[in-house]
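step=predict obj=Oxygenase MpaB family protein n=304
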Amino acid sequence: MEITPKRGRFGWLARIEELDPVRDCQTIHRITAGYEFPWDYQRALEFALFRTYCVPTISALLAETGEFEKRPQKRYDDTALLMAEMLEHGYDSERGRESLRVVNRMHAQYDISNDDMLYVLTTFIYEPIEWIDTYGWRRLHPKERLATFHFYCEVGKRMGIKHIPQSYTELAQFKLDYEERTFRFSEDNRRIGTYTLDLYCSWFPAALTPAVKQGVFALLDDRMAHAFGFPAGSTTVERVAVRALRARARVERFFPKRTRSRVTADATNKTYPGYPVGYQPSDLGTLASPRVRSCAGRAPAISV
């Protein structure tokens, strides 16, 4: 359902208040991630995926595939874009269903436990919520929290994940309990964590690599740092990073509201230039269509 915002900086929030968090979960979550907090949402998902690599069974599988060692940027872009397709167009749209088929086909190659799948799903819900409440230009509306929960629960059902808790708080408790039970150091955690950290550093000039690493270390909690075998972050760097993020939020509060969704509109995408122009969801993933090779490098950049 396409909707337009009301007038003023809080026009999208006014629209959200008119919607139902169950029936309209995709619309509300698209507003949150695509219009209100696209930058924050992207950063939160980066740390959400990073968090899943603290589970030895998950990192062992990723180490086995070799994707993070050989093609970390593509692996990252595939995951982000496949989920973004479902969010931008809906999980029951043509592109959404195609994205789900790609995700399910990739997962079917491996023996992945239901609890690991469910845990990864929880990070897409609660990590962005926590990040935006901490660093966003406004706090989330209760309907936004519930819409995020219901949206990803529906995605989870279509991925064949079983025993998904039916309440927001119950699923949040599952996440906490699972982390308490599974976050342990392993060499696979360290390897996948290091590949991912190197990927983050590659997005910046080489001279900034030490600063980027220190910034990431500072934003990791103690349990994550231990699971990766990373050094504890500097409290001074943490204070600087938090102040910078909150200063950014104060400035963004005075920006005009966005009138175009930025869920999939990323002209700087490194693996798929100009995505989504010239691409289909089937071009993504480890079993991508050969057509992606003819698309890459020739699709025009899109305006954002």
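step=describe
Residues 114-135 form the longest helix (22 residues).
step=end
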